[in-house]
Every structure is written in C-alpha cells, then in structure tokens.
C-alpha cells in the first residue's frame, strides 16, 4: 500500500533562542537517512584505517599505540560509536582521541561540497497527472500534492504499477488517499489562495507582538556581511524612545499571553544600561497591561560580557544568541574586532561563562557565508564540541548587493547534513529545513518569515522613534513608520504583508506552499518581483530533502 | 579473472644476508618492512579474502619487531607462518620466541652442490637443528638442490626421519648465462636435475604435483614459451609495500593506494606470465609454507 506521510501537529516549538517563534521544530527520527550517512562514514573510515570487519562494525587495529578500536553505527541516532582499548588508560585515551579525530575528519569531508556533486535528480520532480509532483529515488517515489501538502511514499512495485494502464491497484489505493487523476487544478496559485482561505490563513499581520530593539549601531566588531550599517556615528536610542517603544508594544498586546523583546544592535551590550532600564520598565508595563510573560533575548557577538550583564541575564532568564560562524579559521574570515584582529579567544571564554551560568538558554546564530559553506557540518560540530553550544540557529540567506550569494541547492543539502551532525551530538539545528518538515507533517502551508501563526508580527524598534515592520531591514522606506503613525493607522502593518505566489512561475513550483514566493523584504533587496534563482533552488531543495524524510518522531 | 588469493607472502625486509648467488628475487633493496605499511597491507589483504600470511625474506628473524608482525596478523584474524634461514643463536631464539604462534615454520637449506654454487652455508643438518628448537604444529625443511649424490640423499632422509618434518624441494635454476660461462647447456642442466631428482626420489616420496611441476619447468626451459598467464594463488607484498600477484610479477600496486584501486588490481586478470623462476610459486600441489 502506498504510505501517506504520518501526520503530526505537535511539533516542539521551542529553543527559538533569538528569533521568531515560527522557526523552531525538531524531528529526531530520520533513521533511513542517517543510516545511509553512517554507512558512508564507515566506508570512508575504511579507506584511512587498518581494520577488520565485525558484524555491522569495523575494528581498527593500531600498532602505535597498540590497541583496538571498534567503530560502529549508532543504532538509534545519527553518528557513530567509537570505543578504544589500548591496554592502559593512557593508550586507550590516545586511541580514542585519534579515532574520534578521524571520524570527525570523515564527517566533515562528507559534509563538504568540495567533493564533486552530481546534480541531484531528487530535487527535480516530474509532474504527474498535471497536479502532483513525483520525486524519484532508487526506484521508489514520493508523490506530493503541492496545494494540500499531502504526500505518499510508493515502493518500487507501486511505481511501476503506476505506469501501467489505469486503474491498477496502486491507482485505486492512491485514489483512496485523495490522489486522483481527474480534474487538475487550472491554476495552482489560485488553488493555494483558496486553500489558505479554507484554512483561515491570512497573510495580513494583526499586531506587533515582538520588538527587536536596536539600541545602538555601535559595534566592537566589523563583520563584513552584517545587514546593519554599524558605527555610522548616528545617535543611540534614548531612554525616552525606548520607553515609548515599549509602551507601544505592551499597549498593543494588552491581555495577551506573551510579548517578546530582543536586544539588538550594533552590539547591544554596549548599551547595557538601556537594557537594564528597558527590562525594569517592561516588568512594570507587563503588570499594567496584563501581559503574562515577557520573553527576553539578546543577540550578541560574545566578545564582551561583564559580570554585571551576566548576572542580569540570569536573573531575567534571558535567551542569549551568540553570532558565530564556525571555528576560528572560519569565524575570523568575516568576523573581526574593529581593530581587525580575531575575537575567538574572548568569545570562547565568554561562551563558557554563559553556558555554565544556570537558567540561561544559550544558543548560536550561524550565518552561512562563503567561508563556512562547504563546512557547515564541521562548523556545527565545533560549535557543539568546542564551544559547548547545543542550539544552533542558521540564519536564512538574504540577498546582498541585489542577489543571493550562496548556491541554494547545496546549502539545503548542507543544512541537512549539519542537522544530522547536530542531532548526533545531542544538539539541535534550526533552519528553513524545519519549515519544509513542518509544512509536510502538518499539511499547512508555511509561507511567512516574520509573522507568527497568530498573525502577530516581529518588528524592529529603531533609534529616532521609528519602527520597521520588517525586523531584518532597517532602511527600506516602505517598512518605516513612527509609533504615532502605527497607532493611528494599524493598516500600515500591511506594508509587510507578503504577496503570496506573486509571479506565475510560482504556480509551477513544487515548493509553492512552503516558500510562497519572495517576501516583501526579499523583493526590496533584489529590486523586483522575480525571485533570485538561488532562492528558488534553496526552497525546492529543502522540500526535496523533506519529502524523503518522513520519519520524524519526536 | 584470477582466483582470489587466500594467502600472501610478506617480505619482511628488502635485503637478505644469506645472499645466495642463484637468488632471482626481483626486488632486492635495503630496508625493513615498516609496521605501518604492514598493518595497512594486512587490512587491505584481509578485505580481499586473504586468510593467512607467510613472513618471508630477507630474513624474518632479523626484523626488529618480529613479535609485533606475528601478533598483528593474528589480530587481523589471519594465520601466520614463516620461511626462514635461521641458524645463529640470535636468529633461532628470535624464531623460538614466536614459533608457538605460527601455523608452520619452513627452514631453508641448500644441498652441498647448491651451497657450492650459491656460496651459502645453509646445510640441511643445521636446518633440522633449527626446526628441533621450535614448537610449531607443522615443520618443513625446504631444500634447494643441485648435484645431489645418493649418499647425500640418504643422509637427508635420515635427518628428518621420525621428526615430523616434511621436506619441500626446489631445484636450483641456473641462468643460461651462468651455464654458458661454465661451458654447459640447458640440456646439461636438465640432465643434472633429472639425476638429482632420481637420487632424491629413492629416499623421499615425491608427490605427483612435484613431478608435474618439474615437467612444466622442463617444458618452459626448453621452449621458452611464456604460455601461461600467472595463476599464483599466493599474493606477494614487498618490504616497500607493493602488492604483486607473485614475487616475480612486474605489475604491482601500493598497499597505500585507495581500496578501490587495490580491488581493481586484484580483480583484473593478471598480466604477468609464468616463467621458470616463478613456476614454483604456482605449482599446484606444492606445500607452500602458507598453504
């Protein structure tokens, strides 16, 4: 029988350390995929070790120091188990470290796009009956309805049955699951709009429930790709502006369960005094407006952390997001102190203090850049093993200088491998991949980048009494409004409203209900409606990864 | 396609102090087999189905890490045997130290005539003394012979009688140039070999396999036809870590090559041809020490 993807509505939504609530969700299964990966790891290890086969494992035999190391796939999780015996504790430890290094090197290599990759046939599905997308792999196939997001796995027998004269048993079984040959939708974009309407999904934001508060544009680092113009000499936010912004946030959310405040910059801790002031004020305002909970997060580069700030974060149960791109060689490619020197040692010390502090939720924001693409898995491994950070949020690429600077298809594959690396190490990695998994599992389109399911928006509070309705763009005029303007005309929020599937080509795309076309910000940054081809490749590839991965069980 | 080899000869050193002047070994060079090369060889060979190794010359008892060589092969789940010329106290004690871990020990000796020809001192009697000093389930005296008289054959039979020592024979193959320098022909050498074999045959039971090997050898020497492709069932690993189908082969692959390349080399039909020098390795019923 064709196997429909298991439905799942209770994704864990947490650990969104620093960003919008819609971005989290973790699935721990993915067994078929990680088994395949484990097999590849073992096979690659065989090339660089002296080994004999054990049942389902290998035993590496070493002469210096003399000893044995058993390397076996972890049966229940991604990753491999390494167990060494060298006769003495010291020799065992050396063997263990050597073997682990080898495993890491292999894993990093397997995650690397530097090896020649063939074009991935999985990523280019064929249209079936004018309305479904068929993904083929090794004789098996997955059928996806791009509108309802129903998906079905067919084994190789069913795939050939499907090519037979209808109705075969497979045709009938598929019809039972809602996959029928008749009446292809005339226009899939229209069908999606209809579907959104039926599900009550509306792209128009209702209110602002979270503020990214840009305290200052001063920063002690000068990262090349930062989307914020830093150290321009513009004045910092004043206490009055901050107070007015917070007042607005709480008044808009009177009686709501939660608002979120994210301290942002520049480097926000440079104005720790404003953070203290704002946190005090937020408590008062929450009580006054009956808001149950204030989620507080800070995005910092970690190069600067006073004891006072650390105590404050602990006391207010902060989520701390540290922006870091990978091990020192990678991180310092784009992330340097103002003086041009790397900050890795400082960052490492401060991360340790944060991780060791009780009650903090510490994570990492990783930006895919030219220097870590191809090494994401390695970077993730380092972040977990060396820095001790278990929660990694990978920023979604945005166009810089008018276009995407990364290869979308490769990034999608890398994110998947990095995710498995993270899971194998007891960490979690959040990225746009989760959006595809979640959409397929819940059968709900996932189209909005900066808006929660309750249609509340994350906006940015900027110095000079302005709000940007897009929290990652502080300069686009159509996004900028004063607090008074927003109070007077709530419809101004619609300047952030995404036009779902804005171009005809979106109708032909399997990722129609997962991407939904370029956001307003994307359009502003590329200067037009037509999405960047790499963006399209990224979303179609994340979908291709997700359709084959239907084992989420968390 | 060659049949997959189940055994391999492993050269523990490129050099050999015995230095028989009739030695035809193709790859003489100074230097011991390193442990890293050896373990890599064991791993790669084991993967292709090799189940036993035979440590061979140079002289294995001179290898500074002989015990390690034996131990590692056992860890890889392979049987280990050894071909040695051990005679001195140091050599025999090095051998005795590992002998209980070996499946078989073959001690090489030369007949009187062969000793004179090759300027060696490896007598059969001293070989038996060495074999007496070791404790292995199987013992072989390997005799390279030339110009064997009846009396020497009688003595040889007496030396091994009742000791559980098997005898393995190889005729000296004198090169045509050497024969010519001596004013003799191939036919002369073949007649000598026939006489030697007859003498030995009076006291030792020569197997049919050995007799047919001698027939093959004779035919090869007379016709000079390289008729048979290499059919060695025993691979060879040089001290520098090159794998060949046989010690005399010319095509080779490093054990440090990728596993894919090694497999491709071993799966491909051997390009080497059987010549008189290497025919002993291929002889069907030979009791090769690793067999």
TrEMBL record, chain A:
Its EC number is 1.1.99.-. One of its GO terms (molecular function) is iron-sulfur cluster binding. The keyword Hydrolase does not apply. It comes from the Bacteria. It is an enzyme of class 1 (oxidoreductase). Keywords: Iron, Iron-sulfur, Metal-binding, Oxidoreductase, S-adenosyl-L-methionine. Signal peptide: none annotated. SUPFAM superfamilies: Radical SAM enzymes. InterPro entries: Aldolase_TIM, rSAM, rSAM_sf, Sulphatase_maturase_rSAM. Belongs to the radical SAM superfamily. Anaerobic sulfatase-maturating enzyme family. This is Anaerobic sulfatase-maturating enzyme.
From TrEMBL, chain B:
GO terms for molecular function: catalytic activity; iron-sulfur cluster binding; metal ion binding. Pfam families: Radical_SAM. Gene3D superfamilies: Aldolase class I. It comes from the Bacteria. Keywords: Iron, Iron-sulfur, Metal-binding, S-adenosyl-L-methionine. PROSITE patterns: RADICAL_SAM. This is Molybdenum cofactor biosynthesis protein A. It comes from Streptomyces lavendulae subsp. lavendulae.
């Amino acid at each position: 029988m064709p196997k429909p993807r298991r439905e799942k509505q209770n994704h864990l939504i947490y650990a969104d350390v620093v960003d919008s609530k819609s971005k989290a969700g973790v699935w721990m299964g993915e067994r078929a995929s990680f088994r395949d990966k484990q097999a590849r790891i073992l096979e690659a290890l065989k090339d660089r070790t002296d080994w004999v086969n054990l049942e389902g494992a290998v035993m590496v035999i070493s002469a210096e120091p003399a000893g044995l190391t058993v390397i076996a796939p972890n049966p229940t999780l991604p990753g491999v188990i390494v167990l060494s015996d060298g006769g003495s504790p010291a020799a065992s430890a050396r063997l263990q470290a050597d073997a682990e290094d080898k495993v890491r090197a292999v894993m990093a290599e397997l995650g690397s796009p530097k090896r020649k990759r063939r074009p991935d046939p999985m990523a280019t599905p064929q249209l079936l009956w004018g309305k479904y997308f068929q993904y083929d792999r090794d004789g098996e196939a997955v059928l996806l309805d791009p509108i309802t997001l129903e998906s079905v796995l067919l084994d190789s027998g069913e795939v050939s049955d499907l090519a037979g004269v209808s109705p075969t048993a497979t045709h009938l079984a598929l019809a039972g699951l809602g996959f029928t040959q008749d009446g292809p939708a005339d226009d899939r974009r229209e069908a999606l709009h209809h579907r959104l309407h039926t599900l009550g999904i509306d792209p128009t934001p209702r209110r602002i429930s979270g503020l990214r508060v840009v305290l200052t544009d001063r920063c002690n680092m000068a990262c090349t790709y930062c989307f914020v113009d830093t150290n321009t000499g513009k004045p910092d936010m004043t206490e009055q502006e901050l107070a007015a912004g917070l007042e607005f946030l709480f008044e808009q959310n009177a009686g709501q369960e939660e608002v979120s405040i994210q301290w942002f910059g520049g480097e926000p801790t440079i104005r720790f005094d404003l953070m203290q002031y704002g946190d005090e004020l937020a408590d008062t305002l929450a009580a006054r407006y009956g808001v149950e909970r204030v989620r507080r997060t800070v995005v910092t580069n970690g190069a600067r952390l006073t004891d006072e700030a650390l105590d404050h974060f602990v006391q207010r149960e902060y989520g701390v997001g540290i922006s870091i791109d990978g091990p020192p060689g990678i991180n310092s490619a784009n992330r340097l102190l103002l003086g041009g020197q790397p900050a890795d040692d400082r960052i490492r010390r401060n991360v340790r203090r944060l991780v060791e502090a009780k009650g903090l939720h510490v994570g990492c924001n990783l930006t895919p850049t030219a220097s870590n693409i191809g090494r994401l898995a390695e970077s993730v491994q380092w972040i977990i093993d060396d820095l001790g950070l278990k929660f990694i949020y990978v920023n979604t690429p945005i166009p810089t200088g008018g276009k995407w600077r990364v290869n979308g298809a490769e990034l999608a594959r890398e994110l998947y491998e990095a995710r498995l690396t993270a899971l194998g190490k007891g960490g979690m990695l959040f990225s746009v991949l989760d959006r595809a998994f979640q959409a397929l599992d819940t059968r709900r389109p996932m189209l909005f980048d900066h808006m929660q399911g309750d249609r509340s928006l994350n906006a940015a509070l900027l110095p000079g009494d302005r709000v940007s309705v897009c929290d990652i763009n502080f300069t686009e005029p159509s996004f900028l409004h004063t607090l008074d303007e927003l109070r007077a005309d709530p419809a101004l929020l619609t300047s952030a409203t995404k036009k779902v599937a804005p171009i005809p080509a979106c109708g032909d795309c399997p990722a129609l209900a997962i991407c939904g076309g370029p956001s307003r910000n994307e359009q502003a940054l590329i200067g037009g409606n037509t999405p960047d081809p790499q963006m399209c490749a990224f979303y179609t590839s994340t979908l291709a990864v997700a359709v084959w991965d239907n084992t989420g069980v968390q | 396609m060659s049949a997959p080899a189940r055994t391999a000869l492993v050269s523990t050193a490129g050099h050999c102090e015995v230095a028989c002047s009739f030695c035809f070994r193709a790859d003489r060079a100074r230097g011991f087999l390193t442990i890293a090369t050896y373990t890599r060889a064991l791993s790669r060979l084991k993967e292709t189905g090799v189940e036993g190794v035979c440590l061979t010359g140079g002289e294995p008892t001179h290898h500074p890490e002989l015990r390690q060589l034996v131990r590692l092969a056992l860890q890889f789940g392979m049987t280990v045997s050894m071909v040695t010329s051990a005679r001195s106290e140091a050599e025999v004690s090095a051998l005795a130290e590992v002998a209980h871990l070996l499946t078989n020990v073959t001690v090489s000796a030369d007949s009187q005539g062969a000793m004179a020809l090759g300027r060696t001192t490896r007598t059969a009697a001293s070989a038996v003394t060495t074999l007496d000093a070791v404790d292995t389930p199987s013992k072989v005296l390997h005799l390279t012979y030339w110009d064997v008289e009846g009396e020497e054959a009688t003595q040889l039979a007496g030396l091994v009688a009742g000791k559980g020592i098997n005898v393995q024979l190889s005729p000296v193959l004198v090169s045509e140039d050497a024969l010519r320098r001596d004013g003799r022909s191939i036919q002369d050498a073949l007649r000598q070999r026939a006489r030697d074999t007859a003498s030995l045959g009076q006291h030792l039971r020569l197997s049919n396999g050995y007799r047919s090997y001698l027939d093959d050898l004779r035919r090869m020497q007379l016709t000079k036809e390289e008729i048979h492709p290499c059919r060695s069932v025993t691979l060879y690993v040089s001290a520098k870590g090159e794998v060949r189908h046989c010690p005399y082969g010319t095509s080779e692959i490093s054990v440090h090559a990728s596993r894919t390349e090694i497999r491709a080399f071993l799966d491909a039909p051997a390009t080497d041809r059987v010549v008189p020098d290497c025919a002993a390795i291929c002889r069907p019923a030979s009791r090769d020490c690793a067999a």
